[in-house]
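re the bet — no i am not wrong, look at it urself. input seq straight from the record:
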Amino acid sequence: MKKYDRDRGLSMFDEVYCGDLGQLPAAGASKFIDHMLETLFAELWADGTLSIRDRRLLLLGAIAAQGDDTTFTIQARSALKRGELSGEQLDAMALFLTQYVGYPKGSRVFRVVNEVKAGAVKK
């Protein structure tokens, strides 16, 4: 059985989200958080095959397709803050995604992108 590394996951989580998402529960307090840190962040996000930016672009597309404004906001804000995407690139991404996710979801993406660029969306 593979031993996962929660500390590595926590470090990657903080890097991906610029430390903006606050304190997570201590190890053992939440099986969900432990599993997320040990697998999603310690293994998948930390795998060097794709950059954080590459993974973020994939994730932004998937989230836009689902219409999840909250998670899209977190990802777009982190991409802008980490310098992975500029405001102009966020606009281009929103325009491109709209063609694939449809105009109702695309208009929500544009709203979030504009709020993030304006700094209206905080932690």
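see?? The helical segments are 6-16, 31-45, 52-66, 69-81, 87-101, 103-117. told u. also The chain has two domains: 6-45, 52-117. so pay up
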